[in-house]
Task: structure prediction
Amino acid sequence: MKTITVKASKTYDIKIGFGILDEADGIINITGSAAVVTDDIVAPLYAQRLEQALSRKNIRVVRYVIPNGEASKSAEQLVSLLNFLAKEKLSRTDTVIALGGGVVGDLAGFAASVYMRGVGFIQIPTTLLAAVDSSVGGKTAINLEAGKNLAGAFYQPDAVLCDISLLSTLKPEVFRDGCAEVIKYGVIADSGLFKSFEKPIKDQLEDIIARCVEIKRGIVAQDEFEKSVRKFLNFGHTIGHAIELLSGYEITHGSAVAAGMAIVTRCAVRMKICDDSCLQSLLKTLKLYNLPVNTVYDAASLAKACLSDKKRDGGKVTMIFPEKIGKCIMKEIKTEELENIIRLGLEEQL
Ligand SMILES: NC(=O)c1ccc[n+]([C@@H]2O[C@H](COP(=O)([O-])OP(=O)(O)OC[C@H]3O[C@@H](n4cnc5c(N)ncnc54)[C@H](O)[C@@H]3O)[C@@H](O)[C@H]2O)c1
Ligand SMILES: [Zn+2]
Result:
């Protein structure tokens, strides 16, 4: 088992290993009651194992199951979860445990941050995406009609338990979505990590997850509230969120981010920020993992959708462009220039 310590407004450990769900009682340091929030696919697979482990510690466990999928990151679902916590009489010293992917983690984390102005919160990621990204760093959110993650809070967990063996039941397309975020870490921070994707990510999960988490830990420690370097983690996301929104969330987060990364990197070549070999390496890697490198949406629709994304700042949008694999830069784009910039990234599709 690997332990990675995050030092942000809260200091907490991320434990990564095989089969550690059944040791949750020894790893998670809580007392009282716990609400396990999970979805209808993960619940039958893993909830009982977690609850059994916790019951060895005499913890009262209640379970809240949401329908799987992005639609559950909604205001309605948040309110109904909060009502459930109140009905079950969870107190300020009790704990919400997110057992699931990024949807469960984002919703449960937001609920934990506002229920009684903040209760204990533990993340048990069950997707690759949640393991390397959403379970670490304390961003929680729900979607509003106007766009993704428009309401949320920075709320660090008290612990993260990442049992790699849980990833074995993921559908290939869900695993692939996580690969998009893993590839993102290679592009923004580590060319050696990026090179390792030539061999299947599946065969090197423990090392790759730990490396991604270390990168995110380093960034979050410097800039927990996304004023500066944390923005690098949004590589591919401004356009990715626009693609998700335009598709009515039919296109999943990881796939949208993959297309977003390819599009901004094409822009970067045309803007002479990086050379073509950087783009070709990214495209080759995304294709190796069957991830999309383009979108059907046009520049005008994408720009409009980007502007409803929260990453805009007055008249500007901060976008992340690669200079080379392992190093990105941040550029502020005026909102009126956004459509033309995006068009540069779509040209090959015309
Ligand atoms: N908070 C953050 O920092 C952050 C970072 C990245 C992404 N996100 C958010 O994360 C969400 C995407 O997360 P995701 O890709 O994990 O999606 P998800 O939570 O919807 O999970 C994808 C699917 O996999 C199923 N599943 C989960 N674990 C499983 C398992 N072990 N075996 C079989 N099936 C399993 C789920 O039921 C679901 O159908 C998006 O809403 C995105 O905005 C948040
Ligand atoms: Zn993401």
Notes: Residues 39, 41-42, 45, 68-70, 73, 100-104, 106, 126-127, 129-130, 133-134, 137, 139, 148-149, 166-167, 169-170, 174, 177, 253-254 surround nicotinamide-adenine-dinucleotide (ligand 1) (CB under 6 Å).
